[in-house]
Structure formats: structure tokens, C-alpha cells
Design a protein that fits this description.
Blueprint: H1 3-8, H2 15-31, H3 50-55, H4 58-90, H5 95-107, H6 128-150, H7 152-161, H8 172-191, H9 199-219, H10 223-228, H11 230-241, H12 245-263, H13 269-285
Helix pairs in contact: 2-4, 4-8, 5-11, 6-8, 8-9, 8-11, 9-12, 11-13, 12-13
């Protein structure tokens, strides 16, 4: 089964079959005149003819619901495929995987020599306007998934209505993969001098997205939800470490309160390591700690 389908929840059992089975049993009881009223007295079959005919409409309603749920599942799968397609078109299919492996190795204290990659697929063939158009689509997809995942009441209603699985339906994969792809595009544009006519727009957008992401990550209460964000936060902090001193100073001036908030959380060792490196660099660059001469 596709990971996207598992993500938004599975439909267990077949309520239509169960309903039809119960209905046929009621019809047999009706023909024998054995259907009891609320007060426990027997009624004749002529008094309950309308009840089975009314219940026959219920399987149709259930089938419409199932069709709607199936359509929603398909839309979720297509959305994930589109996000992955953007990432594969702009970069090579293995680039994102190698970046994640590199970020994780650095966070675990391994060797952080990044292997030089060839030209980034179709990225260099697109102008700034085209990149910003794709970027806006990714951000909109991320914010939609984030809003859905934050609406626990709506997720509960969907789960009770038919999205039955091991847990309530969620869009965690859409929420994280769309943001990761958007961050890769932004940091790539930000790191290339003269890559576009509006460098201030790139910087403003990057500051806004990173600030929003760190604030949201700190607000998460579910450990599983926070774990799903591990690769995204590793990407953000690793790319932040690779910035020049001037650009680093601009960013940490915005993110520093969030970094302090994250210290109070029970983070994974990898996240604690990258956060520590950021804080150490802040101390050195802003002369908070003494440096050896």
C-alpha cells in the first residue's frame, strides 16, 4: 500500500456488507411477524413494511461516503507525487537523499565533507519567477497540511466517519516533504550571488519560513509529530551553519529566541548536537565567549 494512503488513514472492514446482512435479517423477521415494538409487543408484518424499505437507502449513503473518501485518498497521493516531482525535476532524484544523509552524519559527529555534486538538474534552467511560482505552491501545500494536522477535532470526525486505521488521518508526509523541498530551493537561491534580480525577496521569504517553522516545531506536543520533523530541522540548522558570517548574523537575530526555547525540549541527540553548534557559533561571532588568541 502506498505510504500516502497509510498516512491519511485506512478504511477497515466493510460496513456496507454488515449493513446489508443486518437488513436481510430484519426482512426475514418482518415476514414472520416477529418484529417487536418498543414496548415489547409483537406487531404484524403489515405495520412494519416501510422500515426495511427505508433502510435499503442506507447502503447507498454509505457507498457515497466511501467513494468520497477514496477520492480524497487519491488526491493525497497525487499531492505527494507532485511534491516529489518538483524535487526530482529541480534537483537529481538522489540529491535530496544525499543531503539528508550528510545532515544526519554531521549531526551525529561524523565527517562533514560534502561531496561535490554535478549541476542541479533543471534548477539552473529556471528563472527566478519560475522558481518562486514553484516555491509558492510548495509553501501553500505545507501550510494546508499543517492546518489540517493541527485540527484535531476535524481529524477525529473523519476518523469516526470512515477513515478508520491505526490512528487518526494525518498529512505529516505532505507537511514535511513540501517544506523540505521549499527550504532546499530557498537556501540554494540564497547561497548563489546574483542568482536572481530580487535577493532581498529571497532573504525575506527564507527568514519568514524558517521563523515560522521553528516556532511551529516548538509548539508541537506529540512526540511522533516532532520526530517527523527531525530531517527538516536538521536541514534548516545545517544550512544555517553553512552561511557566511554576515548572513548568519541576520538569521540568528531572528531565530535566537526559538533556539533558546528548543533547549528546554527533550530533543533527539542529533538535534541537540546541531543546536549546540549553532549556539556555540553565536557565542563566538557575537563575542559572547572568549576566544583563544
Amino acid at each position: 500500500m502506498s505510504p500516502a494512503i497509510e498516512e491519511v488513514g485506512q478504511i477497515d472492514g466493510n460496513p456496507i456488507d454488515e449493513l446489508e446482512s443486518a437488513e436481510s435479517e430484519n426482512q426475514r423477521d418482518c415476514s414472520d411477524g416477529k418484529i417487536n415494538s418498543i414496548d415489547g409487543k409483537k406487531q404484524s408484518s403489515s405495520n412494519v413494511v416501510s422500515e426495511p424499505s427505508f433502510k435499503k437507502q442506507r447502503p447507498r449513503i454509505m457507498s457515497v461516503d466511501q467513494a468520497l473518501f477514496s477520492a480524497l485518498l487519491i488526491q493525497c497521493v497525487v499531492q505527494l507525487e507532485l511534491i516529489q516531482t518538483i524535487d526530482n525535476v529541480l534537483f537529481f532524484p538522489t540529491t535530496s537523499r544525499k543531503d539528508d544523509e550528510y545532515n544526519l552524519a554531521c549531526a551525529r559527529g561524523g565527517e562533514c565533507r560534502k561531496v561535490a555534486l554535478p549541476e542541479q538538474a533543471m534548477y539552473d534552467s529556471l528563472n527566478a519567477q519560475q522558481l518562486f511560482s514553484l516555491l509558492q505552491c510548495l509553501i501553500d501545500s505545507h501550510r494546508f497540511a499543517k492546518q489540517f494536522n493541527s485540527n484535531n477535532e476535524q481529524r477525529t470526525l473523519l476518523w469516526k466517519a470512515g477513515f478508520r486505521g491505526k490512528s487518526k488521518p494525518n498529512l505529516l508526509k505532505q507537511e514535511t516533504t513540501s517544506l523540505a523541498c521549499a527550504l532546499r530551493i530557498l537556501f540554494h537561491m540564497y547561497g548563489k550571488e546574483g542568482c536572481c534580480d530580487g535577493p532581498d525577496k529571497v532573504e525575506t521569504t527564507l527568514l519568514q519560513i524558517c521563523d515560522e517553522s521553528l516556532s511551529y516545531f516548538h509548539s508541537l506536543k506529540s512526540e511522533g509529530h516532532r520526530d517527523a520533523w527531525t530531517s527538516v530541522i536538521l536541514l534548516l540548522f545545517t544550512q544555517l551553519q553553512n552561511l557566511s558570517d554576515d548572513k548568519f548574523a541576520k538569521h540568528v537575530g531572528v531565530y535566537y529566541p526559538h533556539c533558546c526555547d528548543l533547549v528546554a525540549l527533550d530533543l533527539k541527540p542529533e538535534l541537540r548536537n546541531v543546536l549546540r553548534r549553532v549556539l556555540v557559533r553565536i557565542g563566538v561571532q557575537f563575542l559572547v565567549v572568549a576566544t583563544s588568541s
